[in-house]
Amino acid sequence: MPDSRTVVITGAGTGIGAACARLYAAEGANLVLIGRRPEPLEQIARKTGGLILVGDAACPDTWKGFVTQIFERYGRLDVLLACAGGRGIGNATQTSPQTWEASLRSNLDSAFYSARACLPLLIERAGNIVLIGSIASLAAGPEVCGYTTAKHALLGLNRSLARDYGPHGVRVNTVCPGWVITPMADEEMRPLMRFYGDTLQQAYDRVCADVPLRRPASAEEIAKVCRFLASPDASIITGAIVVADGGSSIVDVPTLAYAHMETAHA
């Protein structure tokens, strides 16, 4: 039986957002695909159908028109998947005011304004919000000050929304992936490829060498985690942070030298 729910996906043109669109389309859901670039959205929509809305999810004024169009098209809103995001490269002294603002805007403001705009319709349906965080929400990588700060702040937004809107029946949860094979991650492999002479696959193998599962996730795997959290099977879960990183965040970093020593003697 087709899924009659309406699912709004920001950052729907590529990566995890696009994988979520394909997954929900296969189940017959009504889709709203949101992103800043029309071409990727159109490519996804040719496979999934749905309403395309081109604009910046971090802009509150944009959402006024978006919500009107969503309601006019489908008359309901059941799930918001806040997948829009971006990078924030550089340490604190290297990060310009423009880079700092762009990182907060793409990773935090986009989620906040998306949730704020959609909540009135989500309350009517006792709906769900799923935010896309990162293992950068839990720990700091090298020289990604803006990205790390924004993704940490996203967990505060998750908890605040879950606490305030749980009494209205709205559940809010965050998925924190590790490495995921996406166009953005492919770009992050380029410095390793240049420095070590790695292929793209070898670069992914390198960054996952100490990950317990020894591999990155596919975007489809993360989409399935999002679908679970927004489903009736997760009906008692809200305010949760679900880490989907192949086990990388459980590794005791100070003991890696011992593991590497054992590997060297193997």
- Series of H and E elements: EHEHEHEHEHEEHHEHEH
Strand arrangement across the biggest beta sheet: 3-2-1-4-5-6-9
Write down how many β-strands occur, each being a DSSP E stretch of 2 or more residues. 9
Please tell me what the overall shape is. Answer: globular
How big a fraction of the residues is strand?
5-15%
As a percent range, the share of helical residues equals: 40-55%
CA radius of gyration: 19 Å
Largest sheet: 7 strands, parallel
Oligomeric state of the chains in view: single chain
* Uncertain runs: none
CATH architecture: 3-Layer(aba) Sandwich
CATH class label:
Alpha Beta
Q: The CATH topology, please?
A: Rossmann fold
Determine the mean pLDDT.
95
Supply the number of helical segments: 9
Which secondary-structure class do the elements indicate? alpha/beta
Topology:
Blueprint: E1 6-10, H1 15-26, E2 30-35, H2 38-48, E3 51-54, H3 60-74, E4 79-82, H4 97-125, E5 128-132, H5 145-165, E6 171-177, E7 180-181, H6 183-196, H7 200-207, E8 217-218, H8 219-229, E9 241-244, H9 256-265
Parallel strand pairs: 1-2, 1-4, 2-3, 4-5, 5-6, 6-9, 7-8
Helix pairs in contact: 1-2, 1-8, 3-4, 4-5, 6-7
Describe the protein in words.
The chain is α/β, with parallel strands linked by helices and 266 residues long. It has a single domain, classed as 3-Layer(aba) Sandwich (Rossmann fold). It is built from nine helices and nine strands. Strands 3-2-1-4-5-6-9 form a seven-stranded parallel sheet, with helices on both faces. Helix 1 runs parallel beside helix 2 and helix 6 crosses helix 7. It is globular, with a radius of gyration of 19 Å. It starts with 5 loop residues before the first strand and ends with a helix. The mean pLDDT is 95.
